[in-house]
Design brief:
The structure is a homodimer. By secondary structure, the first copy, chain A, is an all-alpha fold. Helix content of chain A is about 55%, strand content about 5%. Chain A has a two-stranded antiparallel ribbon. The first copy, chain A, is elongated, with a radius of gyration of 22 Å. Chain A starts with a helix and ends in a 13-residue tail after the last helix. At the A-B interface, helix 3, helix 4, helix 5 and helix 6 of A face helix 3, helix 4, helix 5 and helix 6 of B. Chain A binds a DNA duplex through helix 2.
DNA sequence: CTTGAAGCTATAGTTGCTAGAGACATTAGG
DNA sequence: CCTAATGTCTCTAGCAACTATAGCTTCAAG
């Protein structure tokens, strides 16, 4: 039986994050020691590693919740898990496409900045005048839009 | 003079977002009509477009605040603006590298999912067992870590 | 003149944590 | 056995960058 600190160390998740996962019901309530401290066994360890790994891949906590409940029913079809993973892949691809466009534009801005005065600065200029910029709106369909952020991937280590 | 709704429409920014920008001091306080409604002129329009565009490129509000104050002093060197843009480019590049790795792994997961039972599901399996996965930790140095999210880019339209 | 859209303020919610305060538990050293 | 240093507990508040809600006032059209 591990204390929360050891578990966090082992799984590469910070202690408050583990408590947070329990609080939102992503992890089951832990057993407690006589002194009211959380104790974890092998099962909790595996589940936390699963969560950590899925977060690393950019899955939302909601998606992970779904995946966990799926993995509790090993006899069902894995179509649902597949769908979740495919959706995640689609999101990543869309973020990727957008980031590539951003990179191109930032590079243009930076390269063209001759190091002169602000008044001539290409960076400020491009930001000020949309028509100077390559992509004509960068507009992303509304449905995809909320998905542009990658959930920050929990800086490894406890 | 435009009302807030027209301004938002013109700049592609939602009305509450404009008020939010004013609240946090990113936009100056707007003039008011006799009936206490905000009125905007050409200057505000340009500034909002600048902000919108910079947000599209993934700059944080803090970075934008800096860029705006720079653009108010056109005689200064543009080295600072250049530095901000370069930092942003570096961030985008790091997110990009990571997303590419994620995409590869998700593709592997999805392709290998044969559509059978959960018990054999490659998706669940890979998530459960870190050793099955290609990247050996995906660990990002702490300093870069907070920067993985792209700030969601304000879904165009008002 | 009335109705409906658009505006106002203020507050709370979102996601996925992270940080702090103040109190109790456990463990290592002397 | 005592003490000091950690570790853990709960609870609350904070971060970015908005978004949504409630309950009100103002405005433009018919």
């Amino acid at each position: 039986m591990l204390t929360i600190g050891k578990l966090g160390e082992a799984a590469g998740v910070k202690v408050p994050t583990i408590r947070y996962y329990e609080q939102i019901g992503l992890l089951p309530e832990a057993e407690r020691s006589s002194g009211n401290q959380r104790l974890y066994g092998r099962r909790a360890m595996e589940q936390l590693a699963f969560i950590r790994h899925a977060r690393d891949l950019g899955f939302t906590l909601e998606a992970i919740r779904d995946l966990l409940s799926l993995s509790d029913r090993p006899d069902q079809s894995c179509a649902a898990a597949d769908a979740i993973a495919r959706a995640q892949l689609a999101e990543v691809e869309s973020r990727l496409a957008r980031l590539i466009a951003l990179k191109a534009e930032l590079e243009r801005m930076v390269v063209q900045c001759a190091g002169g005065r602000i008044a001539d600065c290409r960076v400020i200029e491009v930001l000020s005048d949309h028509s100077l910029c390559a992509h004509d709106h960068l507009s992303v369909p509304k449905s995809v839009d909320a998905s542009l952020a990658l959930p920050a991937s929990t800086s490894s280590s406890n």
